[in-house]
Design brief:
The chain is an alpha+beta fold and about 350 residues long. It has helices at about 5, 10-15, 20-40, 90-115, 120-150, 155-185, 190-215, 335-340, and strands at about 45-60, 65-70, 75, 80-85, 215-220, 225-230, 235, 240-260, 270-275, 280-295, 300, 310, 315-320, 330-335. It has 3 domains: about 45-55 and about 245-340, Efflux pump adaptor protein, beta barrel domain (Elongation Factor Tu (Ef-tu), domain 3, Beta Barrel); about 55-85 and about 220-245, Beta Barrel (OB fold (Dihydrolipoamide Acetyltransferase, E2P)), CATH 2.40.50.100; about 95-210, no CATH class.
Length: about 350
């Protein structure tokens, strides 16, 4: 019998590596490899942006109640199309009152320019003649009374009364003559200026109220789409309160707020791809058009623990290079910023 044959069976099996040892060795090698890959791989930097668009927040310049909401949400409207009508009967009444005041001022101006009528001049002349006759009578009566008082045939009180009547007749004649001269000469330049000023003031009031009445109908400032209507029919509104919001679907962009250390190699005209989750992770190509620093009070971050200097935040606006159907304001987009810079 040979030596190999003489060895027991157990001794021959121990020379083969056990399967468990092989599995443990393979797992150990895999773990080492995964650890090295994890430690050496580049960490992705995902940034998020938000879709925005040119927005028109339309507010009324007058108060009143919502009379009619002409449009509906998501409706396309053209420039000048009525959106909301406001009821304000008091404002309408004020406009009519101002128009009546303008007509009165214009009539007064026409009267000043035309001067006094011939009938008025004749009346003034007749008043002068009557005042002259009254003065002649008062003079004669005063003379008779004066002679009677001198002979003690009339009391002193009658003399005083007739003298006062004479003075009153003289003043009345002077007044009548002044009125006649005014009628013949017509109105002065000062009177004409006052009448003109009244007309201009009345016209300004009419124009102001007409402008406010026009504002009772809120119209679209440009071709746009109805985005939000925060008011309801019959609701009372005040000037300056937003009544309706419009968006321009043809002027949309994606806004990113990025630290300045992420702006390397980014300039106007740079293009990169983003994904839109609301559109099924659709890939959209964007082109950078605006890079602007935000306010000094926002987005500051210390670059070192010692706080030697800070990083500011920049606003980046990127516009789609092609129209994107279904893209709406408020949608989020994201992209791997490390892949863009690789």
């Amino acid at each position: 019998m040979s030596e190999a044959a003489a060895r027991p069976p157990m001794a021959r099996r121990t020379r083969r590596p056990a399967p468990a040892v092989l599995i443990v060795g393979v797992l150990f090698v895999v773990m080492i490899g995964l650890s090295l890959w994890y430690l050496t791989r580049r960490e992705p930097l995902v940034i998020q942006g938000e879709v925005q668009s040119r927005t028109f927040d339309m507010a009324a310049r007058v108060d009143g109640r919502i009379g009619q909401i002409v449009v509906a949400r998501s409706q396309d409207v053209s420039q000048g199309a009525p959106l909301i009508r406001i009821d304000n009967p008091e404002l309408i009444a004020k406009e009519q009152q101002s128009e009546a005041a303008l007509r009165v001022a214009e009539a007064e101006l026409a009267r000043v320019r035309a001067g006094f009528r011939a009938e008025t001049i004749a009346v003034r002349q007749a008043e002068v003649e009557r005042a002259e006759a009254d003065l002649t009578l008062a003079q004669k009566t005063f003379e008779r009374t004066r002679q009677l008082v001198a002979t003690h045939d009339s009391p002193q009180s009658q003399f005083d009364k007739d003298r006062a009547a004479l003075t009153l007749a003289e003043r009345s004649l002077d007044q009548a003559r002044f009125a006649y001269k005014e009628a013949v000469a017509g109105f002065t330049r000062e009177d004409l200026g006052i009448a003109l000023a009244k007309v201009e003031s009345a016209k300004a009031d009419v124009e102001t109220l007409k402008a406010l009445v026009v504002q009772m109908v809120v119209v679209a400032p440009a071709d746009s789409q109805v985005f939000r209507i925060p008011v309801e029919d019959g609701e009372f509104v005040l000037p300056g309160v937003p009544l309706i919001s419009l968006i321009d679907p043809n002027d949309m962009w994606v806004q990113f707020d990025l630290r300045e250390d992420l702006l390397r190699d980014l300039r106007q005209g740079s293009k990169f791809d983003v994904r839109v989750p609301a559109l099924g992770d659709r890939i959209v190509e964007l082109e950078v058009r605006v890079i602007a620093a935000k306010g000094e009070y926002t987005g500051w971050r210390a670059t070192r623990a010692s706080g030697d200097f800070d990083l500011r935040t920049f606003e980046v606006r990127a516009y789609p290079t092609q129209p994107v159907p279904g893209l709406r304001p408020g949608m989020s987009v994201y992209t791997d910023w490390t892949e863009r810079r690789s």
